[in-house]
Amino acid sequence: MHLDTGDTAWILASTALVLLMTPGLALFYGGMVRAKNVLGMIMQNFVAIAVVSLVWVWVTYSLAFGPDWGGHGIIGTFHFFGMSNVNDAPPGYTLTIPAVLFMAFQMMFAIITPALITGASADRLKFGSFIVFITIWSVVVYAPVAHWVFDPNGWLFKRGAEDFAGGTVVHINAGVAGLAVALVVGRRKGWPKKAMPPHNVPMILLGAGLLWFGWFGFNAGSALGANLLASNAFVNTNTATAAALLAWILTERIRDGKPTTLGAASGAVAGLVAITPACGYVNVVGATIIGLAAGVICCLAVRLKFALKLDDALDVGGVHFIGGVLGALLIGFFGTKAIGGVNGAFHGGGFGLLGEQALAVVVVAVYSFVVSWLLAMAIKKTIGFRISDEQEDEGMDLSLHAETAYEFSPSFGGSQIFGKRETSEQGSAK
Q1: 68 forms bridges with which residues in the sheet?
Q2: How many Å apart are CA 190 and CA 279, to the nearest integer?
Q3: Torsion angle of alpha carbons 191, 193, 197, 199, nearest 10°?
Q4: N or C: which end of the chain has fewer CB within 10 A?
Q5: How remote is the C-alpha of 350 from its chain's centroid?
Q6: Is the bond into 192 cis (omega within 30 degrees of 0)?
Q7: For residue 422, what is the enclosing H or E element?
Q8: Which residue ranges form the domains of the chain, and what is each CATH number?
Q9: Is the CB of residue 236 less than 8 Å from the CB of residue 39?
Q10: Are 179 and 120 in contact (CB under 8 A)?
Q11: How far apart are CA 255 and CA 99, in angstroms?
């Protein structure tokens, strides 16, 4: 293995950037919930870093990237169990970075994926049950899906399905799992009749900004080197995100009369999601169209939860599932071997790639939904998955963690929390 110091330095930085995305997600989600639940939301995301880090180094890295078990492309072996043989490059990879760094980089993807699930079931999960869920989910859902799509010996990879940085493995996987969990735990009390607006929009923008920043490590880092491919992925990521932000707020302007700050943040995230699988396979024209499509379609899709009567609290389905599907499928049209991968339909490659992309989307979505639903149901029937009505009224912060995010004196016009209950939905004194 020839180690390149420039590549190594870039992937070290990218690994740190991707880790930053999870605290960014915590702020993004934390600002979107009511004031009485902000710490509960942040805590779920933050604890995912600790839980998945341990599970990854002991078990899931080996299952995702270890030598293929049985030669069927379904799951890896325990070759890397507990960091054993971790200096061996995963089969099929020719690395110019230390293999242990590849392991660490992929760990950050494994961390943020179950953290994304929390947005769909916000305000109502038991903390201990959530930890049980993501521990098992990381092993039985994330690891096999990563092996199928990311590992050169995975069956979807060998068929030709393309996912540069995680459209199927991360976003479709987490998005549909979030919907399954939301379905199992049920709606928040009062939804949809009771208004449940975000309590802190500036926090949402800060979280979205950190996500945008960290996403350059997520996407450009997936080139696994400091090279032209990473540079193209970097530019495509920013281009699609900018296009999606503008498309989302324009859609709001046409539909509702005014563009919103929340819409700008959501549009940016939708663009980031949609370009993730495609950033290393399309040119700037494809990236722009993917971003525009994500901004419009995801903006419209987030309203579907009301028609379906499914309380996807923070629009994980509308943004991550739909955005991931869009990005994955549009590779089949806009993919070009001038950037990476193979040509899609609009570059003379026919519709074969689109067929493989569609197969990967369907397989990952169905597998993740079914297994996530079964796992959530098992937890619900045994230790319980949802907090009590009293805890939901009180808020997750006090009832689960015995603390509050905000303690302001009424003399300064701020909110105040007395004992066990907030004075209002958004923490403002009545």
Answers
A1: 76
A2: 40
A3: -70
A4: C
A5: 30
A6: yes
A7: strand 421-422
A8: 5-382 (1.10.3430.10), 389-422 (no CATH)
A9: no
A10: yes
A11: 50
DSSP structure class, residue 68? B
Per-residue pLDDT of the chain (430 residues; tens, 9 = 90+): 689 999 999 999 999 999 999 999 999 999 999 999 999 999 999 999 999 999 999 999 999 999 999 999 999 999 999 999 999 999 999 999 999 999 999 999 999 999 999 999 999 999 999 999 999 999 999 999 999 999 999 999 999 999 999 999 999 999 999 999 999 999 999 999 999 999 999 999 999 999 999 999 999 999 999 999 999 999 999 999 999 999 999 999 999 999 999 999 999 999 999 999 999 999 999 999 999 999 999 999 999 999 999 999 999 999 999 999 999 999 999 999 999 999 999 999 999 999 999 999 999 999 999 999 999 999 999 999 999 999 999 999 999 999 999 986 554 443 444 344 333 333 333 2
Residue 417 phi, psi dihedral angles, 5° rounding: -115, 125
The model carries a pTM of 0.94
To the nearest 5 percent, what fractions of the chain are helix, strand and coil? 65, 0, 30
Measured distance CA(154)–CA(353) in Å, rounded: 17
**CA separation for the pair 322, 157 (Å, rounded):** 22
Give the rounded distance of the alpha carbon of 143 from its chain centre. Answer: 15
Other CB atoms closer than 10 Å to residue 329's CB: what's the count?
20
- How far apart CA 181 and CA 322 sit, in angstroms, is 17
Taking the C-alpha atoms of residue 354 and residue 160, their distance in angstroms, rounded to an integer, is 10
Six-digit token pair at 87? 């200096």
Please count the CA atoms within 13 angstroms of the CA of 197 that sit on its side-chain side. 10
Q: Distances in Å between the alpha carbon of 323 and those of 110, 166, 271, 302, 345?
A: 19, 12, 7, 11, 20
Other Cβ atoms closer than 10 A to 6: 12
Tally of CA atoms within 13 A in the half-sphere of 194 that contains its CB: 12
